[in-house]
Fold DNA topoisomerase (ATP-hydrolyzing).
Amino acid sequence: MELLKLENRVRFILAVVKGEIIVSNRKRADLFVELQTKGFTPFPKKTKAVEPGVAGATDDTEETEVKSPADSSSNGVQISDYEYLLAMAIESLTIEKVQELCAERDEVNKEVDDLRKETPKSFWRTDLDALEGQLDELERSDVSQRS
């Protein structure tokens, strides 16, 4: 998900810089529709887990965002789902920020590729090695405290 967000941010900034997306002096609803039609991925804000007995109930303490009919579309996507793009500071709409995000994206992409190459057995061994190291350290500290 982080990789997809980074890719979308890079695309968004480049589109704004190139003038393909105009952000200033526009209604949020119009911008929302344009982001949808241009294929930007919506990321809904995380909400608290809902207990089965109260499904459908809302928790006003989580976030008090007033939603107008224009705030959502028929497929359940809301304007706030694009907040990760729309809330970026104006200073981030620069080529330097694009280069920074591209470097971050490449790093995350490498991590994802490395994880895909791993096997469950190698994950298990890595975790066991880390646990063994921590147990050895704990044992040494216990021995030194007794002395």
